[in-house]
Automatic annotation (TrEMBL):
Cofactor annotation: Fe cation
Stated family: Belongs to the bacterial ring-hydroxylating dioxygenase alpha subunit family.
Keywords: 2Fe-2S, Iron, Iron-sulfur, Metal-binding, Monooxygenase, Oxidoreductase
Gene source species: Paraburkholderia hiiakae
High-level lineage: Bacteria, Pseudomonadati, Pseudomonadota, Betaproteobacteria, Burkholderiales
Every Rieske domain range: 43-149
Pfam families: Rieske, Ring_hydroxyl_A
PROSITE patterns named among the record's database cross-references: RIESKE
Single annotated GO MF: monooxygenase activity
Name of the protein described by the UniProt record: Carnitine monooxygenase oxygenase subunit
InterPro entries recorded: Rieske_2Fe-2S (IPR017941), Rieske_2Fe-2S_sf (IPR036922), Ring_hydroxy_dOase_asu_C_dom (IPR015879), Rng_hydr_dOase-A (IPR001663)
Keyword Lipid metabolism: no
Superkingdom in the source lineage: Bacteria
Amino acid sequence: MKVTAEIRALIERRQAGYSLEAPFYLSEEIFALDMETIFRQHWIEVATEAEIPEPGDYVTVDLAGDSILIVRDDDMQVRAFHNVCRHRGARLCNEDKGSVGNIVCPYHSWTYNLTGALMFAEHMGEQFDRCKHSLKNVHVENLAGLIFVCLAEEPPADFADMRAEMEPYLLPHDLAGCKVAAQVDIIEKGNWKLVMENNRECYHCVANHPELTISLYEYGFGYARTDANAEGMDAFERTCNERAKQWEAMDLPSVEIEKLLDVTGFRTQRLPLDRCGESQTLDAKVASKKLLGEFRTADLGGLSFWTQPNSWHHFMSDHIVSFSVIPLSAGETLVRTRWLVHKDAREGIDYDVENLTAVWNATNNQDRTLVEYSQRGAASSAYEPGPYSPYTEGLVEKFSAWYIGRLARQIGA
C-alpha cells in the first residue's frame, strides 16, 4: 500500500524509550498499514490444537480482512485455507467452530475434502478441471499445540528457530493432550498495540490486579534492579535459582530466552509462583486435580511464552491459559482467552470452571479498563509520547521497537 509522507515521518521520528505518537493508536490509515505490514506478513497465533481434536473439526478466524478456516484432516494434520469457495466466492464455514465430513459450500454445494481438494461440482461441464479449483492454502504451523498462520506469499523462515528453542519448554505440558475447558472473548475499545503494551509490563500489576498478584511475583516480568527493590530482587532471584535447579533435574527448562526483536519475535521463562504456588488461581493451588502430560508434582511454577505480535500464554502443571489478540479496527481489539485442562479431567469433579477462570477473567476485565483509559487519553489534544520506565517497562520498549522496525523495513526507511 502507498504510505503517505506524514506516516513515513511518524515512523522515522519515533523516539526510543517513549510511547508512540497518537496516530499510531487512532489512525485508520495506520491501522490499514498494520494489517498489511504486520498481520498479513508475520506468523499470527490464532488457535490451539485442542480446539480441533478429531478429523473434520474446524475453527474459523477473521484476520486482516480475510476469513481463515483451520481444520484437522483425516491424517490428523492441521491445515488452513481461505474460507472462500472457488466457485463464486461464498463463505464456506459460517460458524466460529464445528465439525464436517467434507467442506460443502452452502450456496451451490461445491464439495471439498479435508485437504482442500475439490471433489464435487455439479453442472460444470466435461471441460471443467476440478484440480485447478482446490481451496487456497494458508501457511500454517503447529508449535507444540499452538497454531500459527501466515497470510504472506513467503512467510518468515525463522519460525523454525522459534520451534527449535520452544519445543523443549512447551512439549512437557502436552497441549495436544488437552481440551478447552472455557473460552472467553472480549472486545476492548482500544488499539491492538495498547493491548500488547499493557501485557508487556507489570508496572501496573500491584495497583490493578489483586487476583493475579496472589500467585504472580511482581519482579518476574521486566523489572530491573534498583536500590529501592534490591532486597526484594535478591530474594526473588534466590528463589528462582533454587527452583530452576529442581526443574532442570526434571527436564523442564526454565532459563529465559528473549528474542523479541527477531522477525518472529518471542520470549519465554519458567518462574516460581508466589505463596508456594502451584497455579494461577485465587488460592495459588491447582485448579485441576488431573495434572498435564506426565507431571506427578504440582509446584512447577509458571512458564510464560510471548510471541510478536499478538499472543501470550501461561503453562502450569494443571492447566494452560492461552491469549490471542486480533485487531478489529483502529479502536477495537478482540482478546480471546482459552483455558485448557487435561482431556480426561472431569468438570465438577477434577476442576470447577469458575475457579479455573477467576484470576484471568478478573485480570482481563481490569486490563480492558486500563487499555480503554489509554485509548481515550491518546485521543486528547494534550497527549504526547511519555517516557517508559527504565526499571519496569523495558519489554514495552522492545515491543514498540519491534513494531516500528517492521514498519520501517516495509517502507524502506
